[in-house]
Amino acid sequence: MVDTLGLTNEAKLAQRAMDADFLAAQKLEELGRDELFNEDSSRESIYKQISDAKFCITGLSLWDLLRRDMKPVSAKPKMPPEIVCSTISGMDFQEMTVRQDFTIAANKFCQDHNVKLLVCVTVGPVKKDNRVRSIVLNKGELPGMRRGLAIFASPENRQFAEALTQYLQTEPNELQLQPNKQGPQSNAHHFIFTATINNTAVTRKQIMPILVSFLQRMRSSSTEGG
Fold it and tell me: If you ran DSSP here, which 8-state letter would residue 132 be given?
């Protein structure tokens, strides 16, 4: 129910909840009806409790957020991963990337997993002083949240990261990216690209195949060039 933004009409319209999701939820409700439901609870109230827990990051470090929901990405099965993709729930991409510990944590994360890039898909609250348009993911649920993307690379992998940012913005992948107006941060210590994802139906599930396609294209170009 968390991944489908609850079983609502908005979730259906955003193609986040399918018929199978509704059938599965109905079965779970039937199995746990006496324990789940009473005069003070409903499907909506139960979902809100689950959602609130998911987006609560109290007591979690940035390192905890990076590793609690991550997946490695490789060009083909059984090949070494070149990208790690983390879903960050509860923190906006802008708040995350301006933290003093972000560069250190992201760099160590890439080193520990022996990958070139860290890609973060974020869903978090937009700060009041943030002038960028916020995205309401679901009417009545998660107000003030927006979906975003952050790409981190160490200096030696800057060109690889730049190639990915260009790929994401030129390919018809329906992410509807709105890059940061200031452009990527690029210096002697890191490369960081950030953007708002304006397509609220997008999750990591949709982004993973795009990353795989990018890696396959890069590998193909390298083979042809060699």
Answer: S
Instruction: Give all strands (DSSP E) within the chain, no chain letters.
Output: 70-73, 83-89, 117-125, 145-153, 177-179, 185-186, 191-197
* Count of other CB atoms within 10 angstroms of residue 10: 17
Report the chain (226 residues): mean pLDDT per 10 consecutive residues: 56 65 74 66 72 84 94 94 95 93 96 97 77 43 77 97 93 82 90 91 87 93 62
Pinpoint the alpha helices (H) of 89-157.
93-97, 102-113
Find out whether 207 and 174 touch, Cβ atoms under 8 Å.
Answer: no
Cα–Cα distance list, 18 to 33, 88, 124, 126, 189 (Å): 22, 23, 24, 28, 43
- C-alpha 97/C-alpha 184 separation (Å) is 11
Q: How far apart are CA 88 and CA 93, in angstroms?
A: 8
* Tokens representing residue 152 in the block: 């981190």
**How many residues does this entry show for the chain?**
226
Q: What pTM, to 2 d.p., does this model score?
A: 0.79
Domains plus CATH for the chain?
Answer: 2-54 (no CATH), 60-224 (3.10.310.20)
Strand 191-197 versus strand 83-89 pairing type: unpaired
